[in-house]
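Most newcomers find our protein records easier to grasp once they have seen one. To make this concrete, we reproduce a full record directly below:

…
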Amino acid sequence: MNVRKAVFPAAGLGTRFLPATKAQPKEMLPLVDKPAIQYVVEESVASGLDQIIIVTGRSKRAVEDHFDTAFELEHFLKERGKLEDLSQIQAISKLAEVSYVRQREPLGLGHAILVARALVGDEPFGVFLCDDIIGGASVPCMRQLLDVYDKYDGPVIAVERVPRERIHQYGVIAGRNIDGNVWEISDLVEKPKAEDAPSDLAIIGRYVLTPDLFPILAATAADKRGEIQLTDGLRTLRTQRPMYAVEFEGTRYDTGDKLGFLKATVEFALARPDLAGAFREYLKSLRL
């Protein structure tokens, strides 16, 4: 079955970016002049997934407004002759078909995906974590996963090699290489100690999942923090069917981390033809 839908968990409180996220969603923090979530939605659409399901929470209204039509703003821009700005604004609301579902409590990533069950239905679906913005490849990261899904007909997870000293921050896979950058997963471990990690292949925020995961998540016990972990559900699913990982091509920016967010801002600005020259000269002028 073709994958058409994409789930975007966006109900988190964004505590690592307080006080900036006290009254605005973390997903709406701008990288140059575009909110982080828009980059990820654009990757979804470029990969062929244009039915977007965003899982929101309290104080996330700005996310919904961003992908909606802004009649007053469009009218203002049209009257002032700002047609280039008008075109950009209109393109956002036409990107994809967007639906929303509320996660009433922050009960973990697994729970956030479970909340989307009714909108996903009985079909495979993509999952995008908005903290991970991935670019720099000719083929979008999600499209790389979808191609592997089409070939092997099983759930697919994006992975990236990370230094051992940082492995405790990630879910990690164990597996065997079966085809170039494709791995068949034998196990998944959530945030292991460096000495206990089965590999240096860390799970990154892109997944192609199948609907048989939903009843597993519904039956998955919460962890000691009261959260349902996606990794725990995937670990159970792997015992029931083959599961794969793709060591994707491209550059990942962890915008859920302050340093990662700053790095992404600098690199995205340097990639902009209208900003790159002057910004590069400014950077050279700094006494570092």
